[in-house]
């Protein structure tokens, strides 16, 4: 299991400013709490060709993804069919999903609500504890309703079932006062080559005393500790004034 996952949020109303997204921040927090990071995020309109194209891309990636929205029974709810089309699969009525919807709505399930049981071939259902209308899993894609109050317990259930708890990567950030990025590029290149397994970032900014640089490192404890030793040695050699912004707690 990769330590990353992607996020797809479907909703023209979000892009048009009629609603604010609540899935991204919540899903990121849930994932990080289990030691997983977000690899990418897409916000898509309810457009058939765009959805197929982006789902095809998502299924081709090397990490799982969560998709939110477009699972209703109205003509603009295209997610189920688009996910199937992205993998050249037919849409079929899922017997367990149909049973749950009929139990929930009785005679009111037909003829509209039952459409929400039409899922891509080979999909498995994800239980919905709020109104019993399930989401579904298709390969490494997990599909949830657009309502955050429904999606939250469903994503948590998936994370606990399929995403083993991991130790989160450590990170550190320091601020270098009165420094220019251009003076550090040669060292940065050597540093990144020597510690390729550690994520590196450099963010310049301006202060009253002149330019300054925020350097960030992120990685597993042993790799981060070795990288920090190289950086600390260089700071001492240059006699640079710096301060902690985020200090890691090495084991």
Automatic annotation (TrEMBL):
Gene3D superfamilies according to UniProt: MoaB/Mog-like domain
The MoaB/Mog domain extends over: 6-166
Q: Which residues form a coiled coil?
A: none
InterPro entries for this protein: CinA, MoaB/Mog-like_dom_sf, MoaB/Mog_dom
Q: Which domain of life is it from?
A: Bacteria
Cited SMART domains: MoCF_biosynth
Under PANTHER family, the record lists: NICOTINAMIDE-NUCLEOTIDE AMIDOHYDROLASE PNCC (PTHR13939), NMN AMIDOHYDROLASE-LIKE PROTEIN YFAY (PTHR13939:SF0)
Name of the featured protein:
Competence/damage-inducible protein A
Q: Which organism is it from?
A: Igneacidithiobacillus copahuensis
């Amino acid at each position: 299991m990769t330590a990353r996952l992607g996020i797809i949020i479907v909703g023209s109303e979000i892009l048009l400013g009629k609603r604010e997204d609540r899935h991204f921040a919540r899903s990121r927090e849930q994932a990080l709490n289990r030691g997983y990071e977000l690899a990418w995020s897409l916000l898509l309109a309810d457009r058939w060709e765009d959805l197929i194209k982006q789902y095809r891309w998502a299924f081709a990636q090397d990490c799982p993804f969560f998709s939110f929205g477009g699972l209703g029974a109205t003509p603009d709810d295209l997610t189920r069919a688009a996910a199937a089309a992205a993998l050249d699969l037919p849409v079929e009525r899922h017997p367990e999903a149909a049973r749950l919807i009929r139990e929930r709505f009785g005679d009111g399930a037909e003829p509209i609500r039952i459409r929400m049981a039409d899922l891509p071939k080979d999909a498995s259902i994800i239980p919905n504890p709020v109104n019993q209308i399930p989401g579904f899993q298709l390969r490494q894609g997990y599909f949830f309703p657009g309502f955050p109050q429904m999606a939250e317990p469903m994503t948590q259930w998936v994370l606990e079932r399929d995403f083993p708890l991991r130790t989160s990567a450590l990170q550190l950030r320091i601020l270098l006062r009165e420094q220019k990025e251009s003076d550090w590029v040669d060292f940065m290149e050597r540093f990144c080559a020597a510690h390729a397994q550690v994520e590196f970032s450099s963010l310049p900014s301006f202060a009253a005393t002149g330019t300054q640089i925020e350097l960030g490192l992120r990685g597993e404890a042993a790799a981060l500790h070795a990288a920090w030793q190289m950086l600390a040695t260089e700071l001492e050699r240059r006699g640079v004034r710096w301060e902690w912004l985020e200090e890691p707690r090495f084991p």
